[in-house]
Task: inverse folding
């Protein structure tokens, strides 16, 4: 700006002040009417006496009211300079938009309303997100069920790979933590999902049988999608009556199965597939008895004992105290999964699905009671 222009602008400002017109100062937020608008700049009329220019990076703002401006629209802008090279106000939408964005977040946090965020990056803990120009974080634990990375074995590299697929996508979320001083914002997609899920839950009750498709398998169970986007968890303990080490032994993603609702906790539905199967333990007392010697297969060796399969449906536990170990002998060195051994039943409780075993006195030499009965029946049938 030339010396003459500066002097003229200064005199013009003095005249305005004398006429009672307040001249905006740097940092003030003022309202103006759009005169012209292009991708490179927007010209504003301020109270019919001043002109303001918004250009370059100061145009960039993601608040909705600044999108698609046209002549006649009224908007607010912050004053960066009281006089630019042309004697006009140099102004910014970006600064005003930042404050408006914070105000929107404050209201969303207080009123528990939703906001739309854009995912910009991911790490092993969750998703880095942006609301307007403000960055926040969406933890993995706060993702909706359909977006939660259910990776068998919890492979962190595969979890991150799944999270990276969300970059560039928009999410509807709630603000669950807001600390402006520390610039800390935590979002939750799960809260929004829970709110939508709650009314639909009124259609369901404990004991109801649902038909669905397995959408994910984890170490702790399988997730079943049923009806209109409803989802429930079948915990590994509710998959089958017999003991299993992994749900993958019985199911794969895409399988269609039925399950019974066993509990509803808030917006979470817990299911059971074994409830729809006959409980083999109901006939355990007729098949097995205390004192009976049986041949079993060791399916797992634990520090506290052996898990033993007596048949396809009934498993028992031989506690370490019932295995006749010497002072320096270790259970893992004497027993192996897959070995067949003779055991004596020391306790049986069908209602609790428990059967206690001990290593038989003459393991490996004594024919079990069940084997004797089978052999006797075979001989009678051969006669």
Result:
């Amino acid at each position: 700006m030339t010396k003459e222009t500066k002097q003229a602008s200064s005199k013009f400002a003095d005249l305005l002040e004398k006429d009672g017109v307040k001249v905006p100062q740097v940092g003030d937020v003022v309202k103006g009417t759009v005169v012209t608008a292009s991708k490179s700049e927007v010209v504003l009329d301020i109270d019919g006496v001043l002109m303001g220019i918004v250009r370059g990076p100061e145009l960039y703002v993601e608040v909705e009211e600044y999108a698609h401006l046209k002549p006649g629209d009224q908007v607010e802008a912050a004053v960066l300079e009281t006089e630019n090279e042309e004697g006009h106000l140099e102004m910014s939408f970006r600064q005003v938009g930042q404050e408006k964005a914070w105000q929107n977040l404050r209201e969303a946090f207080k009123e528990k309303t939703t906001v739309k965020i854009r995912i910009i990056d991911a790490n092993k803990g969750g998703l880095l997100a942006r609301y307007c120009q403000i960055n926040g974080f969406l933890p993995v634990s706060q993702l909706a069920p359909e977006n939660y990375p259910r990776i068998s074995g919890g492979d962190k590299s595969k979890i991150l790979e799944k999270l990276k697929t969300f970059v560039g996508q928009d999410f509807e979320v709630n603000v669950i933590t807001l600390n402006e001083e520390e610039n800390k914002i935590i979002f939750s997609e799960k809260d929004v999902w829970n709110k939508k899920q709650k009314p639909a839950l009124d259609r369901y009750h404990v004991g109801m049988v649902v038909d669905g498709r397995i959408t994910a398998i984890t170490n702790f169970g399988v997730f079943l999608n049923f009806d209109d986007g409803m989802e429930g968890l079948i915990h590994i303990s509710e998959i089958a009556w017999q003991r299993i080490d992994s749900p993958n032994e019985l199911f794969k993603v895409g399988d269609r199965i039925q399950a019974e609702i066993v509990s509803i906790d808030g917006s979470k539905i817990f299911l059971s597939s074994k409830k729809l199967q006959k409980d083999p333990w109901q006939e355990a007392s007729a098949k097995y008895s205390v004192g009976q010697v049986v041949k079993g297969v060791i399916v797992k060796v634990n520090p506290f004992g052996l898990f033993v399969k007596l048949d396809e449906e009934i498993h028992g536990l031989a506690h370490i105290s019932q295995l006749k170990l010497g002072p320096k002998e270790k259970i893992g060195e004497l027993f192996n999964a897959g070995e067949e051994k003779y055991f004596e039943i020391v306790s049986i409780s069908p209602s609790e699905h428990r059967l206690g075993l001990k290593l038989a006195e003459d393991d490996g030499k004594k024919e079990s009671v069940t084997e004797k009965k089978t052999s006797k029946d075979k001989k009678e049938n051969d006669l």
